[in-house]
Give the backbone structure.
Amino acid sequence: MRSVRPLLLSVLLASMLPVAMACGKKGPPLAPLRPSPAVISDVKATRLADTVQLQFTVPTGNADGTTPADLAYVDVFAVTGKAEGPLGRALTVREIETLATRVGRVEVQPPPPEEEEDAAPADPAAPPVVAAPVDARPVQGTVVRVEEALTDTLRTTIFEHPDAEKIARVRAAAGDEIDEAPVASTEGSGRTLLWPQPQPQVSRAYITIPYSTRGVAGPPSTPLAVPLVPAPLAPPAPTVTHDAASFSLTWTNPPGVQVPLQRTVTEAAYKEAVAAGNADAALPARPLVTYGTPHTYRVYEVPAPGSTTAASPVPVNTAPIETASFTDPRMTFGVPRCYAVRTVEQRGAITIESPLSPPTCLTAVDTYPPPAPTGLVAVGSGGGVSLIWEPVAAPDLAGYLVLRGVEGEALKPVTEAPVAEATYRDTTAQPGVMYIYAVVAVDKSTPANASPESNRVRESAR
């Protein structure tokens, strides 16, 4: 009987031959990998009365970690209520696009093209390159802001997923109903008994979605819930005064404002007070107990009433303050300065500010003379009297007036214009006449403010 092993081996080799030959063939090219933009993870929100201001950073990379981002624009969506599907699942991109309200879109500049290492040098004879128009779109990595005005419709139209009612019927038929009533506090449970029970808090959830240049959506951001509770009341118009170095504001606490039982004192504030010679400076401390929601304040510089400029109110203090007073060291004379104040309430990570208070405007008038010069010395010599004194440190110093007179007469300026240097030689002094000299400093105001006289000296020319 002939063995079948060689026959089987031949068949096996024959079946593998086309495969081995096919390994050398070039197949169809694979589609290039085009990742989607990375998720936006730094969305922040602030409520200014009935306006929500959103802030986030334009992505600089893709979801797979590559850079720069394949990014064309970022859309911002919002729903009132919980941004979730049935059974608490997260909404899909498609659901967000079709069921949520698009608040705004941020168009993004494409990244600059990569420079070629072996690029040919520019041809001097070539016509000049016309500069491209300025692109107002933000670049990747820029912090951008989007605003939404809250209306009564937005506040009351609560989002409900279209499948929620169907899921509820199925669960009810299966006897799987959920009791969503609040659980009453019981002794020993560790819960705080609140009475009356707090009303459910309605929020508006904001979601950002980046899109590639092909229109492919990146991952949605985690919904950021902004409470729709009433904003705190605004303070009355502040009282504004000024001195030579700063503006001072004070105002009255509006009704219902809760102030901390103990004022916060930072380490820096304590050291500053001690350095200023305040022996009774409060030690660094932070309140441990507050009643209700403590409120703070933020000061804004606003356009003057009737101003035609489109400038928006600008916050002056970076961190909210706990006291109803503020000092602005940005002193400018002769220019109207208008201030308004907002009451600030912190709700978790969200800051809610009141409407602006009525503004108060003040134009500071410079009635503050520079300090008097000191150390005046006079030396007489042939042909005149040389004077020298200590220079005055003043930001608006215009110079010095040298005064001269004789015994029994008022001193008068030797020159009409101020001298810039802290020295002067009087060449008009008559030899043998005993003169009395003094110096005053003057500023750049109109009319100029003059300091008190320096010390007086007596000297004559030889």
